[in-house]
Design goal:
With 94 residues, the protein is α+β, with helices and mostly antiparallel strands. The chain has a domain of 63 residues. The protein has a 4-stranded mixed β-sheet with strand order 3-2-1-4, with helices on one face. A hairpin with a 4-residue loop joins strand 2 and strand 3.
Length: 94
């Protein structure tokens, strides 16, 4: 009688524990301006910018161009509240 080859069960290789996810980068709502731009007639007009940006103030999404300080301020405050982000307000009225 022949001996059958013994089958040995092998243990599965241990799966490496995934490294913890890096902490999300800081973002905040930036409100700056005014910057001088020209309208269609060539007249100089003030423009304020509102956006979500990185710690280095680099935009991470859309940059809103607003032609009124009061409206830009309201937008920045609403974005900060809605997104629960710090507001970095460096804008001044024209």
């Amino acid at each position: 009688m022949k001996k059958s080859a013994a089958t040995t069960a092998t243990k599965p290789a241990p799966t490496p524990t995934p490294a913890p996810a890096p902490a999300p980068a800081w973002t905040g709502v930036y409100f700056d301006g005014p910057e001088a731009e020209q309208d269609r007639e060539g007249e100089e007009i003030p423009v304020w910018h509102v956006y979500v940006g990185t710690e280095e103030a680099e935009p991470v999404s859309r940059v809103y161009r607003v032609f009124s300080f009061t409206k830009a301020q309201s937008l920045a405050q609403a974005m900060s509240k809605d997104r629960r982000l710090e507001l970095v307000a460096e804008a001044m009225p024209a």
